[in-house]
């Protein structure tokens, strides 16, 4: 994707987020086309309700939106969650194998809110210590294994 289209897409997304962001999502910093910081509040009546605010860092390559942004939580607001490692890396399929160029930053934020909302117990992933010791700085350099639920009809 050319640099002009990349900038045009991010300009539109930033304008849309500024004018009509999803409930609980706000812009902390978005001064360029490389890195944004967004504040995501947990949904009401969940373990991460509004008082627990998480800051996410979005890093965009010139290939965005054909390539997903790098998305991480940053200190000191990394939530304790079974799909969030203590280094801020998020194990969420739409950020990797299920990315689609039609998705937007706002939709990613809503997916993160939904992931947080569905949590029933605040705990780190079982392999947190091992992962954090061996992980690269970017979660996009990780080969993620996503669990598939299989339902059988009787």
From TrEMBL:
SUPFAM superfamilies named among the record's database cross-references: UBC-like
UniProt keywords, alphabetically: Ubl conjugation pathway
Ranges of residues in domain UBC core: 5-154
InterPro entries named among the record's database cross-references: Ub_conjugating_enzyme (IPR050113), UBC (IPR000608), UBQ-conjugating_enzyme/RWD (IPR016135)
Coiled-coil intervals, chain numbering: none
One family name in Pfam for this protein: UQ_con
Listed name of the protein: Ubiquitin-conjugating enzyme/RWD-like protein
UniProt organism field: Phycomyces blakesleeanus
């Amino acid at each position: 994707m050319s640099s002009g289209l990349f900038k045009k897409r991010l300009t539109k997304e930033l304008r849309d987020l500024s004018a009509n962001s999803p409930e609980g999502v706000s812009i902390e910093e978005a001064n360029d086309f490389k890195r944004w910081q967004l504040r995501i509040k947990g949904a009401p009546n969940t373990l991460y309700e509004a008082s627990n605010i998480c800051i996410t860092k979005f890093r965009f390559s010139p290939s965005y939106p054909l390539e997903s942004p790098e998305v991480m939580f940053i200190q000191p607001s990394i939530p304790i969650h079974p799909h969030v490692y203590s280094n801020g890396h998020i194990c969420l399929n739409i950020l990797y194998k299920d990315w689609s160029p039609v998705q937007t930053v706002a939709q990613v934020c809503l997916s993160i809110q939904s992931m947080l909302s569905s949590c029933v117990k605040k705990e780190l992933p079982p392999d947190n210590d091992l992962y954090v010791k061996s992980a690269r700085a970017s979660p996009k350099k990780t080969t993620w294994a996503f669990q598939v639920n299989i339902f059988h009809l009787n």
